[in-house]
Specification:
It is a single chain. With 122 residues, the chain is mainly beta. It is built from no helices and eleven strands. The strands form two sheets. Strands 2, 4, 5, 6, 9, 10 and 11 form a seven-stranded mixed β-sheet that branches. Strands 1-3-8-7 form a four-stranded antiparallel β-sheet, with no helix packed on it. A hairpin with a 6-residue loop joins strand 5 and strand 6.
Length: 122
């Protein structure tokens, strides 16, 4: 099985940047597509971005396109989310997830991290 641990969240002012990391374990880590989801209070968990096995294909939600960048380092078993030009509406708990293919719904991912809080202030 794959275990995932997120880190890098925190408090940042609007317009600032953060980089989230998701460290994985397990021999099959590099065989999984990875996604970043977020969940704000009162809202459903939504896909922010996803990346294929070797980083050749990516997906971005329209709300973050041009501001966020997903990347992965399979040698380090880590996936990253670089977040720039942060907005108040980016405030949420961010989760990384592993799945067989890039997918947009939570039920299509097999493994989840515990989440890391990102809070954007004015």
């Amino acid at each position: 099985q794959v275990q995932l641990v997120e880190s890098g969240g925190g408090l940042v002012q609007a317009g600032g940047s953060l980089r989230l990391s998701c460290a994985g374990s397990g021999r099959t880590f590099s065989n999984y597509a990875m996604g970043w989801f977020r969940q704000a209070p009162g809202k459903e968990r939504e896909l922010v971005t996803a990346i294929s096995y070797f980083g050749r294909n990516t997906y971005y939600a329209d709300s973050v396109k041009g501001r966020f960048t997903i990347s992965r380092d399979n040698a380090k078993k880590t996936v990253y989310l670089q977040m720039n030009s942060l907005k108040l509406e980016d405030t949420a708990v961010y989760y990384c997830a592993a799945g067989t293919l890039i997918a947009q719904t939570v039920d299509e991912y097999d493994y989840w991290g515990q989440g890391t809080q990102v809070t954007v202030s004015s």
